[in-house]
Automatic annotation (TrEMBL):
Residues 1-19 form the signal peptide. GO terms for molecular function: metallopeptidase activity. InterPro entries: Mito/Outer_Membr_Metalloprot (IPR051156), Peptidase_M48 (IPR001915), TPR-like_helical_dom_sf (IPR011990). This is M48 family metalloprotease. The lineage of its organism: Bacteria, Pseudomonadati, Pseudomonadota, Alphaproteobacteria, Rhodobacterales. Keywords: Hydrolase, Metal-binding, Metalloprotease, Protease, Signal, Zinc.
Amino acid sequence: MRKLSARLAAMLIAGLVAALPAAAPALSLIRDAETERTLRQMAAPLVKAAGMRAGSVDLYIVRSSQLNAFVAGGANMFLHTGLIDELEEPGQLMGVMAHEIGHIAGGHQVRRAINIRNAQGPALIAMLAGIAAAAAGGPQAGAAISAGATQALERSFLSYNRGEEASADQAALAYLERAGIDPAGFLEVLERFRGQEVFTVGNIDPYALTHPLSTQRMQLIEQKAAEARGRSFREDPEIAYWYGRARAKLEGFLDSPRRVLNRYEERDDELALYAKTVALHRLPAPREAVESADRLIAMRPGDPFYLELKGQILHESGRAREAVPLYRAAVAAAPEEPLLKAGLGRALLALEEPAADAEALRVLKEARDRDRGDPAALRDLAVAYSRAGDTGMATLATAERFALSGRSKDAVLHARRASALLPNGSPGWLRAQDILVLDKRDD
Ligand SMILES: [Zn+2]
């Protein structure tokens, strides 16, 4: 019985791989300005150490409790929330990032021929999300391994061969050294996954499948970590602080609110308060959540993300008018963050007043120009265009939102409609053509 289902599972994986990137993504990407900024800051010294241009690696946060990190479609790095939750020290996650950047720099994606060359913007992100869904593997991947179908998975683009793993490790160790980061963190991560091949089906972390561990790998990294033991490494309190915040925030948003509140009942430090504020909001206990957010803001006046959180709590508890000034302050404190602008636009639309609608359209357009992968902003942008009477652009924003959520048929349908409504050759019309590449793929 098990054997049969495992074979079936292996076929499903093969089917999924063949169908990529048409398969609708079975997982969601988390968009959060603060968490993304922190991860970008952690990756930056490693990207630089790899001799790559700053900002050339795009980071995506996958909402999944499974432990995994992988690269897809070129320089796109996906990190599971489960991994961020598991790794308490920034040096550990930076070890993983260094290894992934090693795969990017080594061009290990090239042989995984996926035709995404024609895709741009939301269509590209949808395809990447489809790849991410396949890489998440889930129970099928575990079953395939148990039945000795390892090779099926290894042949796919989801896992690397030994040579690639070794070269990504070598590169990672060089980047960590150049960036002044202790390789001990990376060793700790690999020790966490060591020996997983003897685990039962459901207990294998996808990371161990996509990055097969070998004795040689462990020996090399153990040796480097031992060599580094005598050296002193510069602790970066800024990175440690922001990583702690990212973890507290994710915990607040992803764990059960009751559990979070119980866990931190006795603690009143900033990180505990952050997790509890989010948990109170989700409970929902809006009055307590606002009080708690005020305490965070008092600890760090002008912090854009604490202002954003209070704005979100107010807006989502039906107090959009009070949320608007909070979002304005957040945008003023971090004008380079499109997700904060999108929040301001959302709160403004909720006022349902012509002047606020006009301002919402302006800030949402700015947000969209800086960030083409935010489905919530696209939904709001469609509303703003529609209220302004611009049906063509509203339809385009809807097409882009469907593309992002993997609904290719709906995306193509709306992109055709938008093409017909928008002037031929205009920027909006061209963006509609970017979505139409999805039409060539099956659903
Ligand atoms: Zn690897």
